[in-house]
């Protein structure tokens, strides 16, 4: 069966109009973006959903409880103290930028906020508490998944898999609010929101199976993860299924004082990529990590990266019925 796609992409504007087919039912999608706002029109939704997407705030707050871990957090604790607002260039800070963005989400009537990794520069207790305090102050529902810094204490012994599991449980657990930190989904106004921990660039079999089940469902979905999907011509930071990702291309392991990446991706990683980008009910994916706004069209679907929230950047994603 033939499908017709029309794609227009510019520096701050991206539009996609295409049909997809789920369970034999035609599903039309149109996506328009002008940097910090993304509008998704779908024939499969009946209500308007508004989600703020935030990544890479890099909160560095800590207190006396951090003293035993200073040797592991000192480099990132010294970063991002003073930043520049993504629009005005004015001086700001991660704390101020985060508070302002959540306040804006509240003003705009957002249904929820998606925190898509590296909200923290390391897993400090004070950082986790600060996020919770701001969310309570503005009474904003939120959903969280890890970035590669959220759980990483630089120079601490252990594999990335071991350390991620340890600090997700011991420090980051409150931010997951009872959801499975590996992979989980919620439904808001007829749209599935999927949160996948891709923070070490690799996909686990459990995550692949989870996404495969979602793809076979009837509901349209948006996928949120910290590391972006590979797209042709992108560097290895767009690392999910990037063919050049691996130990030989890992230029950051020494400064981040961690083990090298694996030699290469596994078949699970590639199967996950194919499942997501080929899903007929996918609306879009949103990732962070690269600290810049971007949009790649892969198999007719948009895959967005959001600017760093330490500069107050965000996406306002509005999903609306197609009229």
Work out the helix count: 6
- Roughly how many Å is the radius of gyration? 19 Å
Q: Strand order, biggest sheet?
A: 1-2-3-4-16-5-8-9
Shape: globular
Architecture, CATH level 2?
2-Layer Sandwich
CATH homology superfamily: GpdQ, beta-strand dimerisation domain
Please give the structural blueprint:
Blueprint: E1 6-9, E2 14-22, E3 25-33, E4 37-42, E5 49-54, H1 70-77, E6 83-84, E7 91-92, H2 94-107, E8 112-116, H3 125-137, E9 142-145, H4 160-176, E10 183-188, E11 191-196, H5 205-215, E12 221-224, H6 267-277, E13 282-287, E14 294-298, E15 301-305, E16 315-321
Parallel strand pairs: 4-16, 5-8, 8-9, 11-12, 12-13, 13-15
Antiparallel strand pairs: 1-2, 2-3, 3-4, 5-16, 6-7, 10-11, 14-15
Helix pairs in contact: 3-4, 5-6
Short description:
The protein is 23% helix and 27% strand.
């Amino acid at each position: 069966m033939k499908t017709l796609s029309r794609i227009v992409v510019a520096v701050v504007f991206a539009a996609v109009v295409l049909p997809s087919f789920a369970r034999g039912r035609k599903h039309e999608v149109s996506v328009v973006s002008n940097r910090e706002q993304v509008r998704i029109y779908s024939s499969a939704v009946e209500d308007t959903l508004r989600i703020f997407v935030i990544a890479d705030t890099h909160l560095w707050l800590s207190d006396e409880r951090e003293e035993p871990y200073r040797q592991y957090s000192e480099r990132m604790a010294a970063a991002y103290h003073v930043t520049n607002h993504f629009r005005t260039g004015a001086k700001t800070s991660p704390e101020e930028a985060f508070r302002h963005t959540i306040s804006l989400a509240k003003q705009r009537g957002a249904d929820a906020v998606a925190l898509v990794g590296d909200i923290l520069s390391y897993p400090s207790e004070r950082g986790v508490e600060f996020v919770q305090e701001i969310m309570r102050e503005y009474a904003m529902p939120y959903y969280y998944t890890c970035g590669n810094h959220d759980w990483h204490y630089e120079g601490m012994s252990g594999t990335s898999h071991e350390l991620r599991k340890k600090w997700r449980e011991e420090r980051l657990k409150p931010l997951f609010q009872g959801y499975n930190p590996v992979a989980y989904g919620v439904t808001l106004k007829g749209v599935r929101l999927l949160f996948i921990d891709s923070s070490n660039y690799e996909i686990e079999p459990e995550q692949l199976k989870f996404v495969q089940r979602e793809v076979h469902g009837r509901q349209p979905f948006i996928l949120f993860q910290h590391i972006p999907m590979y797209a042709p011509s992108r560097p290895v930071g767009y690392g999910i299924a990037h063919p050049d990702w691996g130990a030989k291309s890992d230029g950051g392991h020494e400064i981040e004082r961690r083990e090298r990446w694996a030699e290469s991706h596994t078949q699970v990683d590639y199967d996950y990529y194919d499942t997501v980008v080929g899903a007929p009910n996918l609306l879009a994916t949103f990732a962070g990590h690269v600290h810049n706004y971007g949009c790649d069209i892969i198999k007719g679907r948009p895959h967005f990266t959001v600017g760093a929230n330490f500069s107050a950047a965000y996406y306002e994603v509005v999903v609306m019925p197609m009229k």
